[in-house]
Design goal:
Elements lengths: L3 H7 L7 E7 L8 E6 L2 E7 L5 E5 L24 E2 L2 E3 L6 E2 L5 E3 L21 E4 L2 E6 L25 E7 L3 H5 L6 H7 L8 E5 L2 E12 L2 E12 L3 E7 L4 E11 L2 E9 L11 H23 L15 H8 L13
Antiparallel strand pairs: 1-10, 2-3, 3-4, 5-6, 6-7, 7-8, 9-10, 11-17, 12-13, 13-14, 14-15, 15-16, 16-17
Enzyme class: oxidoreductase
Cofactor: Fe cation
Catalytic activity: cholesterol + NADH + O2 + H(+) = 7-dehydrocholesterol + NAD(+) + 2 H2O; cholesterol + NADPH + O2 + H(+) = 7-dehydrocholesterol + NADP(+) + 2 H2O
Length: 337
């Protein structure tokens, strides 16, 4: 495992800002809460009785109890209890709204002036689509600069339930995303027969790519394509078309500056209303998961080279880094040491 000290030498970049997955929707039921750690912060994630998902600072402004760790019957299994739209601190039952306001101190004659009518806990902007709960993170508290993209494949009964995979990886999210601008590694790491050729378009906070390729099958070649995209640093998506259509949500969320949580959610179209299992469908998913497993030890042990020595066969790494640098509030220079 990489230590934080070593990681600080490996990656000088801060955490990027953007929309990030903090949970799948079906992992958080109404009136449920739990502790989570993202963006280098202790947080509490909960859903109100009405079904609204909320992410906020975890530590009560009263005496510092963690709202994500319950007591009594909730000890070890959940966070503070939910009453209506509010989360209740397990220590003294102070109640907080989804906006982070203290709405009740049950034993106080008067609300403390420092919290009365004020937001005393930071609450994150939330969106819920694609069967995912998304939180907007910006270190300076800037409001969302773009919206989460909703995908028909992830929100339709015509497509299969999500087939999910998850990893904790000791790396920086930029290092993972840079693979898309590095076609040469596909041959030497993943064993592809040739270097993939991509058409890549950078457009503001978004990037899209297209690879058109004929795919060999026992019955001859099948025309196929791979369409990739990213909305900021946290929402990646890929659609494989040809032998077995497959849609992939690739979700990368910073835990801290040197560690990320990666979620892959695969979705495939139903055939005559039924989910097709096994065969080519399963093989495509296994291949993609296997590629991440092959990349993981490289990511966890490499360093960031701000001025890499590149050759004429390398991909547009400098262009990618310039695009990605816009997601650093501190204005990080991709050429910086």
């Amino acid at each position: 495992m990489t230590t934080d000290t070593n990681a600080m030498k490996r990656y000088p970049m801060p955490m990027p800002f953007g929309w990030f997955a903090v949970s799948y929707s079906d992992e958080l039921a109404p009136s449920q809460s739990r502790a989570v750690h993202y963006f280098g912060q202790e947080l509490v994630l909960f859903r109100t009785e009405a079904g609204k998902a909320v992410l906020m600072e975890a530590y009560c402004p009263h005496l510092g109890a963690h709202l994500g760790h319950g007591i009594h019957e909730r000890s070890g299994t959940g966070g503070g209890r939910i009453e209506g739209n509010n989360i209740v601190c397990p220590f003294h039952s102070w109640k907080f709204s989804p906006e982070g306001e203290c709405v009740e101190v049950p034993y106080a004659k008067n609300m403390p002036p420092k919290v009365a009518g004020k937001k005393c806990l930071k609450s994150f902007p939330i969106r819920e689509t694609n069967q995912v709960i998304w939180a907007w993170y910006h270190p300076d508290g800037v409001a969302p600069l773009w919206e989460v993209i909703s995908h028909d494949e992830a929100n339709s009964d015509d497509w299969s339930p999500q087939d999910r995979y998850e990893w904790i990886i000791h790396t920086h999210p930029q290092e993972m995303a840079e693979n898309a601008a590095d076609p040469a590694h596909f041959k030497y790491v993943h064993g592809t027969a040739s270097f993939p050729e991509w058409e890549t378009t950078y457009d503001g906070y978004f990037v899209r790519g297209l690879q058109v390729a004929n795919m060999p099958t026992p019955r001859g070649e099948v025309k196929g394509s791979i369409r990739t995209g990213s909305a900021g640093p946290g929402q990646g998506f890929t659609k494989f078309e040809g032998i077995a259509d497959t849609f992939l949500l690739g979700l990368t969320t910073p835990i801290d500056e040197h560690k990320v949580q990666v979620r892959f959610a695969f979705i495939q179209p139903k055939i005559n209303g039924e989910v097709k299992k096994g065969g080519v469908n399963a093989a495509i998913i296994a291949n993609i998961v296997g590629q991440l497993e092959e990349d993981k030890p490289i990511w966890e042990h490499k360093i960031y080279r701000p001025l890499p020595i590149l050759c004429d066969g390398d991909g547009p790494i400098a262009k990618f880094r310039k695009w990605y640098s816009q997601f650093y509030a501190e204005g990080f220079d991709p050429r910086a040491l």
